[in-house]
């Protein structure tokens, strides 16, 4: 389902956006819709990546045997 959204934007920005949209052979509306979809998808992808990482850590057979390292030991060169 699509919903309408009203934006208030400076005239000069809108003019430049229209020129860019014309250069891309699209519309400002389409560019804004694509932008919002891309940032919404990033958040969703990030959340799924975190869920995958947590599942992987819980199912890991790795075991340090209780050994702990300091930050300096991990970053020795």
What brief labels describe this structure?
single chain; 77 residues; mainly alpha; 3 helices
What does this 3D model show about the protein?
There is one protein chain. This protein is mainly alpha-helical and 77 residues long. The protein contains three helices and no strands. The protein has a domain at 7-57. Helix content is 64%, strand content 0%.
Summarize the structure.
With 77 residues, this protein is mainly alpha-helical.
What helical percentage do the residues reach? 55-70%
Portion in beta strands: under 5%
Which regions are unreliable across 5 or more consecutive residues at pLDDT < 50? none
Helix and strand content put the structural class at mainly alpha
The first-to-last residue Cα distance is 56 Å
Give the total of beta strands. 0
Q: Please compute the radius of gyration using only Cα atoms.
A: 23 Å
List the helices and strands in order.
Answer: HHH
Enumerate how many helices there are, as a single number. Answer: 3
Q: Give the overall form.
A: elongated
Main sheet summary: none
List the SSEs and their pairings.
Layout: H1 11-23, H2 28-59, H3 71-74
